[in-house]
């Protein structure tokens, strides 16, 4: 037993230079911190990220969330055992009282939830993934995830005209370290390929560290990636995944890509791409309310269909997607729901229904590496944390390198 004595919070900046919440949670024995990421292409049904409005930071300040941590959540949780993760999370949910954490802010609540897990772990003197595996209630052994590197950025994460948000490469390798090396090599070859074809001004990177060349059609991005994979010597050893984030290019009943498309035409377009390229996974292929089109693609393509904006790590939405057979994989983002306990519940529901799970960063990240341990702890086998470039992305991948060493030693 180790009671929480107080909780402090501060405003720090995320990888886009916007404010976000960092929490320090104190017990008698330790002080542990956690910081909160932030999305750009957020789903309509995500828990609410509290922002101050007004002039400071162009309205994006998080001082209200900080105040909620220090003046409302800290007194609420004072004296509660940091080992009681579910109790801590449920007390915050109850006191917030809203369906989407809009009173305290999911950014306030999540910071506390993650810092509490770290505090309990610090007292156990274990690695965080071991503690998370023990409290998750998930019946799987910890294991290393396969990384999905987002090497070409589009959509809301880049200043180009690509409608699809993420073009990812997923190496098939025996170890995480090998997969990271393969990803890094292809990333650098891709840089050369892009420069040769589109010039030096085309090798700037987007929010998640992937290149953001001035492309419009998905085929152009896929061809560049295929060429880079081939030139790096990994043909057949690296597969491709997409996150279309389709809600972002959906307006007035149509999907606006290089042409305006109906959902039926977009479905045919996906089937065409899947036939032409080694695409093994597509996330958010349709807008966030269209459970049916997701199901059509899942049925007709037989590849992995991932729910992100559709399911928002929320068991109510996941249940609906299960009933409608919309997906076969859950994208897990802890800040979409706001507590670790609810994220674990989402994982359990996904596993119990035969779905896979992919742990995910947000486009606005911090140097916090919590999700690396989380992916290992739940044994889900997949993580996406951006390109093998930019410190806030690399922090997660480097953490995974260290965890792989720990697992090998055992
Ligand atoms: P976001 O993008 O963090 O900007 O929401 C990531 C994703 O859509 O998977
Ligand atoms: Zn997504």
In a few lines, what is going on in this structure?
With 410 residues, this protein is an alpha/beta fold. It has two domains: 122 residues, Enolase-like, N-terminal domain (Enolase-like, domain 1), CATH 3.30.390.10; 264 residues, TIM Barrel (Alpha-Beta Barrel), CATH 3.20.20. The strands form three sheets. Strands 4-5-6-10-11-12-13-14 form an eight-stranded mixed β-barrel, surrounded by six helices. Strands 1-2-3 form a three-stranded antiparallel β-sheet. Strands 7-8-9 form a three-stranded antiparallel β-sheet.
Can you tell me about this structure?
With 410 residues, this protein is α/β, with parallel strands linked by helices. The chain has two domains: 4-125, Enolase-like, N-terminal domain (Enolase-like, domain 1, 2-Layer Sandwich), CATH 3.30.390; 146-409, Enolase-like C-terminal domain (TIM Barrel, Alpha-Beta Barrel). The protein is built from 13 helices and 14 strands. Strand 10 (279-283), helix 8 and strand 11 form a beta-alpha-beta unit. It binds 2-phosphoglycolic acid and zinc ion.
């Amino acid at each position: 037993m180790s009671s929480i004595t107080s909780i402090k919070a501060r405003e720090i900046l995320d990888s886009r230079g916007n404010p976000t919440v960092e929490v320090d949670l104190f017990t008698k024995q330790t002080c542990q911190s956690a910081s909160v990421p932030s999305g750009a292409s957020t789903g309509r049904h995500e828990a609410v990220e509290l922002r101050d409005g007004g002039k400071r930071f162009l309205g994006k300040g998080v001082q209200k969330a900080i105040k909620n941590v220090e003046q409302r959540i800290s007194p609420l949780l004072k004296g509660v055992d940091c080992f009681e993760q579910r109790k801590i999370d449920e007390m915050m949910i109850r006191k917030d009282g809203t369906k989407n954490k809009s009173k305290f802010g999911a950014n306030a609540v999540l910071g506390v939830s993650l810092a509490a897990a770290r505090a309990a772990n610090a007292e156990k003197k274990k690695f965080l993934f071991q503690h998370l595996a023990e409290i998750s209630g998930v019946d799987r052994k910890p294991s290393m995830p396969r990384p999905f590197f987002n090497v070409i950025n589009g959509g809301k994460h880049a200043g180009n005209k690509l409608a699809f948000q993420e073009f990812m490469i997923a190496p098939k390798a025996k170890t995480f370290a090998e997969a990271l090396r393969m990803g890094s090599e292809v990333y650098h070859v891709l840089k050369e390929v892009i420069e040769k074809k589109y010039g030096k001004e085309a090798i700037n990177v987007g929010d998640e560290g992937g290149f953001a060349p001035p492309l419009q059609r998905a085929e152009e991005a896929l061809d560049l990636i295929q060429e880079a994979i081939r030139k790096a010597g990994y043909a057949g050893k690296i597969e491709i995944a997409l996150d279309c984030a389709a809600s972002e290019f959906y307006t007035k009943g149509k999907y606006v890509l290089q042409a305006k498309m109906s959902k039926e035409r977009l479905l045919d377009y996906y089937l065409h791409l899947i036939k032409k390229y080694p695409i093994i996974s597509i996330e958010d292929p349709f807008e966030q309310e269209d459970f049916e089109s997701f199901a059509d693609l899942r049925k007709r393509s037989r590849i992995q269909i991932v729910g992100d904006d559709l399911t928002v790590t929320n068991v109510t939405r996941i249940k609906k997607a299960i009933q409608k057979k919309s997906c076969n994989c859950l994208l897990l983002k802890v800040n979409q729901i706001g507590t670790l306990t609810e994220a674990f519940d989402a994982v359990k529901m996904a596993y119990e229904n035969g779905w896979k799970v992919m742990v995910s960063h947000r486009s606005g990240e911090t140097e916090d590496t919590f999700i690396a341990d989380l992916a290992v702890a739940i044994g889900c086998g997949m993580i996406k944390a951006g390109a093998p470039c930019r410190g806030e992305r690399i922090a997660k991948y480097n953490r995974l390198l260290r965890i792989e060493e720990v697992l090998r030693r055992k």
